Amino acid sequence: MSHNFLYFLFCCFSINTILGAQNNNGSTLSSGLNNHKYELLVGGGVHTTGFQVKAAFGLVYNPKRTGNIVLEFGEIKDPSERQQTYDGLSIVGGAPKSFIYGKRNNLYQSRFVYAEKLYLSDKNNRAISLGLSYAAGFSLGMLRPYYLDLIYRNNVGIPTVTAEKFSQENQFKFLNPQEVDGPSGITYGWDELSLYPGFCFKAGLLVDWGASDSILKDIEVGVAADIYFSDIPLMVFEAQTPVFFNIFLNVHLGHRW
């Protein structure tokens, strides 16, 4: 799959170079192709540890350079996360529910960054334009406790379930799959958010179809790093870290005017 993707990028670059050379050898861009001043886009995608969605407003400085103010929201997962299911029916009825063994917290991120796109050739309506993208700004990590339905039994052995997050008091039950009925659900823990401020940096390659069209449509692939001021505990058995790296793939749609 990686070989096919590299071949795709090579073809895009070759087409862009050929069409740019043809343009320099005789054809002239019409005066209206590169007269956009602003752009507005939404998008999202996946990365190696989660997902992200974004919205951005941009200023077109010149045909080869655009600046954007970007808001992003996403989730970061620990690479060691694995789904696990208790063998048996759920205590509350139905099929058993899978949960992540040893997970302590969910990490969500909000980014506020300044980003730039630098196109490698003149824009035109007929070609694929390649460019470089880079961004830097603030990242706010939001840590939400991960709740599990733990099984308790009364004096006569009748089971009940209680939603609980990991603690020193319940660690043996929380980490025993035979005592877990499944995850408690996404509604738990929002009133217990912990905030972790930090910074983020991104760099990537941009593939833009019709970079001078009023309809914005592009794909961005690159690397990103979120660096927080303190360690973030995601898993019980994994080392805590303040730094998270990922490789991302985003798709953007928007409007230029």
Count of helices? 2
Radius of gyration: 24 Å
Indicate the overall shape. elongated
Uncertain regions spanning at least 5 consecutive residues? 1-10, 12-33
- Order of strands side by side in the largest beta sheet? 1-2-3-6-7-11-12-13
Q: Could you report the average pLDDT, rounded to the nearest whole number?
A: 86
Order of helices and strands: HEEEEEEEEEHEEEE
CATH topology, by name, is: Porin
What share of the residues does DSSP label as strand, in percent?
over 45%
Helix content: 10-25%
- Structurally, the number of domains stands at 1
Question: In the CATH hierarchy, what is the class?
Answer: Mainly Beta
What is the number of beta strands? Answer: 13
Structural class category? mainly beta
Mind describing the biggest β-sheet?
Answer: 8 strands, antiparallel, barrel
